[in-house]
Amino acid sequence: MRSDPISSKSRLDPTVSALKLLVLGANGQLGSDFTYYADQLGYETVGLTHEDVEVTNRDQLFDVLGRMGFDAIINTTAYQGPKAYRDSSPAASYDVNAHAPYHLAEFAAENHKVLVHISTDFVFSGCTPPEAHAFTEQDLPQPANLYAASKLAGESLIPLATESYFVFRLASLYGATGSRAKDHSNFVKTVVGKLSNNEPVRIVDDIRSSPTSAKSVVFKIAEVIATEKYGLYHLAGSGSCTWYEFAVEIASQLKLPVDLIERSSTREVAQEVKRGNNTSLRNQRLVDEGFEDLAPWQENLREYLRERRM
Ligand SMILES: NC(=O)c1ccc[n+]([C@@H]2O[C@H](COP(=O)([O-])OP(=O)(O)OC[C@H]3O[C@@H](n4cnc5c(N)ncnc54)[C@H](OP(=O)(O)O)[C@@H]3O)[C@@H](O)[C@H]2O)c1
Questions:
Q1: Which of 126, 157, 197, 296 is the most exposed, fewest CB within 10 Å of its CB?
Q2: What integer pLDDT is reported at residue 272 of this predicted model?
Q3: 225-252, pLDDT tens digit by residue?
Q4: Helix, strand or coil for residue 125?
Q5: 49 lines ligand 1 (CB under 6 A)
Q6: Is 56 in the pocket of ligand 1 (CB under 6 A)?
Q7: 199 lies in some domain
Q8: Does 164 fall in a domain?
């Protein structure tokens, strides 16, 4: 049971709330937070899970969506996580992460809907140090694995079918439920679980990204999609940190034993997937379009830990 009612101050302009949203991947980490918070923001939402629709089946997708009334599709589905990373064939990655978004874009164009698609910081694979860089929408993607390449392909295919789309690149996401593709967990839950049990954790200090709370993303997406400022947006907690620094911040905020966190490096700890060591994002387009930037990642973490009563 959730215990984090949204204050009336957070509610959007009531004229916005007329939009009806169809959330795909509704029982996923982002999908479930999306349905929960968007409902509270005044949007009418309906969610579909994998059991309700197979997004890689174009005929079924068009049939199911065609029988439902809504204004915008929120596509949170993805083939990701350890299973996807172990899969050396591109077929499933491209079916879910590239072809399905294209079919959704086709559906959106034919039926005058807006498509909201979720992508990832993994489209980048930068290198730090020496140069700590936060990637903007202007930077050239350089995917380092099949998941990332297929997500980038999805981003590229959508505009071929529709103009009425938003693509939001998120990063290092943590929500109420954890990621289904990652054993229903996320980094915050894992670190809190281990440290609370007095178990030591080894965390790499040479991979940098921008931790992002699902709630902060839902609020901002709800705001942006109420406009017609279509296109690509980065949407991540402001600032960046290494995974080690993220763990230390979690422990510090919860007053858990920081000394149980052992600093490590990618040379010492095998990574589950090939990736660059910096995928930090800057929400440049968001700010350029006149939206308020997301809060510093530490603030969103504090809110998350408080609301989850961790
Ligand atoms: N998690 C992160 O750290 C992170 C970071 C950056 C970007 N993102 C992006 O954020 C989005 C949401 O991630 P998340 O952590 O919320 O993932 P998640 O918890 O794994 O949720 C994904 C949802 O999509 C559903 N799904 C997967 N394949 C499907 C298919 N073929 N047909 C229909 N439904 C399908 C899943 O259902 P089943 O589990 O039943 O298959 C699940 O409900 C994804 O687009 C991801 O690429 C995530």
A1: 197
A2: 85
A3: 999 999 999 999 999 999 999 999 999 9
A4: coil
A5: yes
A6: yes
A7: no
A8: yes
CA distance 67 to 52: 13
Ligand 1, atom nearest to 55 Cα? 32
d(Cα 124, Cα 183) in Å, to the nearest integer?
A: 24
What's the chain's average pLDDT?
Answer: 93
What are the C-alpha distances in Å from 155 to residues 19, 78, 158, 199?
Answer: 23, 13, 6, 40
**Rounded CA gap, 196 and 191, in Å?**
8
Q: Is the CB of 253 under 6 A from ligand 1?
A: no
Residue 276 CB less than 6 A away from ligand 1 = no
Does 285 contact ligand 1 (Cβ within 6 A)? no
Whether ligand 1 lies within 6 angstroms of the CB of 235 is answered as no
pLDDT tens across 12-45, in order?
444 444 689 999 999 999 999 999 999 889 899 9
- Residue 104 falls within a domain, yes or no? yes
Among 173, 184, 235, 273, say which to mutate for ligand 1: greatest number of ligand atoms within 8 Å of CB.
173
Query: pLDDT, tens digit, for every residue of 42-81?
Result: 899 999 999 999 999 999 999 999 999 999 999 999 999 9
Number of separate domains in the chain: 1
**DSSP code at position 17:** G
Q: What is the pLDDT of residues 80-112, one digit of tens each?
A: 999 999 999 999 999 999 999 999 999 999 999
For residue 130, the domain's CATH number is 3.40.50.720
Tell me the C-alpha distance between 64 and 54, whole Å: 10
At residue 131 the predicted structure's pLDDT band, cuts being 50, 70 and 90, is low
Answer yes or no: is 247 within a domain: no
Residue nearest to atom 15 of ligand 1 (CA): 179
